[in-house]
Amino acid sequence: MSTATLDPVALRADFPLLAGQPELVYLDSAATSQKPQAVIDAEVGFLTTANAAVHRGAHTLAAEATELFEDARETVAGFVGARPEQLVWTSGATAGINLAAYAIGNATLGRGAPASTRFALAPGDEIVLTESEHHANLIPWIELAARTGAVLRHIPVHDDGTLDLDRAGEIIGGRTRLVAFPHVSNVLGIVNPVDRLVSMARDAGALTLLDACQSAPHLPLDLPALGVDLAVFSGHKMLGPYAIGGLYGRSDVLEALPPFLTGGSMITTVTLDEADYLPPPQRFEAGTQPVSQAIGLAAAVRYLDAIGMEAVHAHERLLERRMREGLREIPGIRLLGDPSTGSGTASGSGTGEVERVALSSFDVDGVHAHDAGQFLDARGIAVRVGHHCAQPLHRRFGMTASVRASAALYNTEDDVDAFLDAVAGIRPFFGVAS
């Protein structure tokens, strides 16, 4: 393992918002990360010096814009271990999952090449998800099941937040056509066992889709090596701009999937009655593309690469342990997915200590999550409150809302200590401390 380290204090100077607000403790990076100056400069630089429509026009400016756009694709694809033709630009992970769901739906309708029939769903076919899904990796499949007659099944989680792999082995079977799951839970911070789930899906002949939103910013990521068929990630969670993300796909999968959105720039020949489509990734990129955003995301990837994802991961592991251990010591704090603080119901547990990113969600006994969040905000600490687009998982742990603190490479141990000190003051402030 790499011994590289990073200096979060020095890095903070690269982020204009953080440099301009030195007292701010920003612990909401799981929702959206801050952007370094290099990303801002890259996007503004394109708009001020090379702005033109890509893949169109014969003039020099259009050619330059196209080259920058496709160079960005190569850079971002390389960051996740992929080839450029395996990366489809989307507006984010939500759009990527919807693209996959609607493409499978179109295959079910008989659209696409003969190879598309492998994705067609029949009534009673099963789509397997987990109990810990973000709504973005749940609702598109709910809708696809409603359109096709497929059945949704869900892998439960133990009290410690880990997936029940024994139940997964029972659920994934002969009728399973798709297994979609998060690499990292956006509520629990747990890194799920991708290899085990991919192996089960392969044995069943099922397609796999990985939600990598919470892993791409924090872990070294090689999607082909993980063996997944499809994966999505969002730029704004990994230091990049808003409205840009990626759908990775194995080449044979993307080549067989029919398109979802249709229009200009994704066709070869069009008549008044029919159309032929380009190969991937352009087949899935209809209309005007997020060009400046893609270039900004490439700058974010270069920034992360220069630091080293091993160094990012090692630094954030220290923050995660400090945060989790500190929360465990505060009376009245109940961590989701942590039986030592009383979360969950008695339905078993996993195998003990698991790998996590620097993210913790918790309940403050006697204080609503929104009140706790406002208390922390008044002390200069930015956290997330609510159900974090994961209502079923919160119900699993017997609550409707929680407070979520999530760190990134620019956070320091002092940030975590300030956060823990403030959390310790919540219950006394509201008069509910025992």
Task: Describe the protein.
With 434 residues, this protein is α/β, with parallel strands linked by helices. It is 38% helix and 15% strand. A seven-stranded mixed sheet has the order 2-8-7-6-5-3-4, with helices on both faces. Strands 11-12-15-14 form a four-stranded antiparallel sheet, covered by helices on one side. Strands 1-13 form a two-stranded parallel sheet. α3 (37-49) runs antiparallel to α11 (291-307), α5 (93-108) packs parallel to α6 (139-148) and α12 runs parallel beside α15 (413-424). The longest helix has 20 residues, at 60-79. It is globular and about 75 Å long. It starts with 7 loop residues before the first helix and ends with a helix.
Can you tell me the overall shape?
globular
Counting DSSP E segments of at least 2 residues, the number of strands comes to 15
Can you count the helices? 16
The CATH first-level class of the largest domain comes to Alpha Beta
**What is the third-level CATH name, the topology of the largest domain?**
Aspartate Aminotransferase, domain 2
